[in-house]
Write a structure and sequence with these properties.
There is one protein chain. This protein has 11 helices and 13 strands. It is of the alpha/beta class. The strands form 4 sheets. A 5-stranded mixed beta sheet has the order 1-2-6-8-9, with helices on both faces. The chain has a 4-stranded mixed beta sheet with strand order 5-4-3-7. A two-stranded antiparallel ribbon has the order 10-11. One of its GO terms (molecular function) is endonuclease activity. InterPro entries: Cas1, CRISPR-assoc_Cas1, CRISPR-assoc_Cas1_C, CRISPR-assoc_Cas1_DVULG, CRISPR-assoc_Cas1_N. Belongs to the CRISPR-associated endonuclease Cas1 family.
Length: about 350
């Protein structure tokens, strides 16, 4: 039974689930067999993932009366709708979000923690690669990159303005992408070598793959923010621009390396993607073939089912739910219920 209760929110992912009201309890049935019961007063929200997860009208009505939000996501995690009663605290949450964005001190503090999460997880990917490297020159290069990341993390902690913080991020990104080639299987490096990050359009196959995975990740993070009632457009680390989901991009940062980058490396190193899956346009951009996109999409959904230990919750949760959890932690921080935002750090 794929259902979790995390941070007072019930997540239901099992196909064919039917949620009904049983006195003051949410009862989850699959093929008319009761699989789980959760007292309604223990919940602040219900999130369903999949078009075939259904809720009874009585449960929806009771949730609206009790202030329990109900959010509907597609199987891939795309936000569909949120059902709430006439009185909602989301306007207060959004006001707190706007207030924090207007405060240079709070913007800097939130951005520091977001960036620290990104750097810590990127460092973990490089460190694991150094341990598994078969060639001495690869190991040495990766160890050197890890040492630079240690310096970047120290710089994040003392940065006193956003420009300085973004400068640290830029330098760390150059170090990271230069080292990423060392994690590619030796016989695949000629086809998937990456010379820094490029987009609009990507200039090599690895960047084309990363761009597609990052798009999937942004969608998941945006859905998570909309689920908790935050405005995806109002971010902290990323500059506000019309049409840009700045807060979703902020939330993406801590997951890039452990979710998208590791997935890209796995697909390449296992031979699931080959050079023939990409083509170069007349303008020099690189595009991924439709069949390859399907391969990546399927692998992405499977990856999201894998569980990781959440250090704050001290429990294993599916990777696909991590953006939801972190969005709720961010909302709690903005409300003042937590002293500081704690990004997800992979172990």
């Amino acid at each position: 039974m794929s259902a979790w209760t995390l941070l007072n929110t019930l997540y239901v992912m099992t196909e064919g689930s039917y949620l009904r009201l049983d006195n003051d309890t949410v009862r989850i049935e699959v093929e008319r067999e009761t699989r789980l019961r959760v007292p309604l007063h223990h919940l602040g929200g219900i999130v369903t993932l999949g078009d075939d997860v259904m809720l009874s009208p009585a449960l929806l009505s009771r949730c609206a009366e009790s202030g329990v939000s109900v959010t509907l996501l597609s199987r891939s995690g795309r936000f569909r709708a949120r059902v709430e009663g006439p009185v909602s605290g989301n306007v207060l949450l959004r006001r707190a979000q706007h207030d924090a964005n207007s405060s240079p001190d709070r913007t800097l503090a939130l951005s520091r923690n977001i960036l620290a999460g990104k750097l810590r997880n990127s460092r973990t990917v490089l460190l694991r690669g150094a341990r598994e490297a078969k060639a001495d020159d690869d190991r040495s290069a990766l160890d050197a990159a890890v040492a630079k990341f240690d310096a970047s993390l120290r710089a994040v902690g003392v940065a006193q303005e956003m420009d300085a913080l973004r400068g640290v991020e830029g330098e760390a990104a150059r170090t990271y992408f230069a080292a990423l080639n060392r994690l590619i299987r030796i016989d695949a490096r000629a086809d998937f070598a990456i010379d820094g990050r490029s987009r609009r359009p990507p200039r090599d196959a690895f960047n084309a793959l990363l761009s597609f995975l990052y798009t999937l990740l942004v969608h998941d993070c945006r859905s998570a923010l909309e689920t908790v009632g935050l405005d995806p457009q109002i971010g902290f680390l990323h500059v506000l621009r019309p049409g840009r989901p700045a807060l979703a991009l902020d939330l993406v940062e801590e997951f890039r390396a452990i979710a998208a980058d590791r997935m890209a490396l796995t697909l390449i190193n296992r031979g699931q993607l080959k050079a023939s899956d990409f083509r170069t346009t007349e303008g020099g951009g690189v595009l991924m073939a439709d069949d390859a996109r399907r391969t990546v999409s399927i692998a992405w959904q499977e990856r999201k089912k894998e569980t990781l230990m959440h250090p704050l919750l001290e429990s294993e949760v599916p990777l696909g739910l991590l953006p939801q959890i972190q969005a709720r932690l961010l909302a709690r921080t903005l409300r003042g219920e937590m002293e500081a935002y704690l990004p997800f750090i992979a172990r």
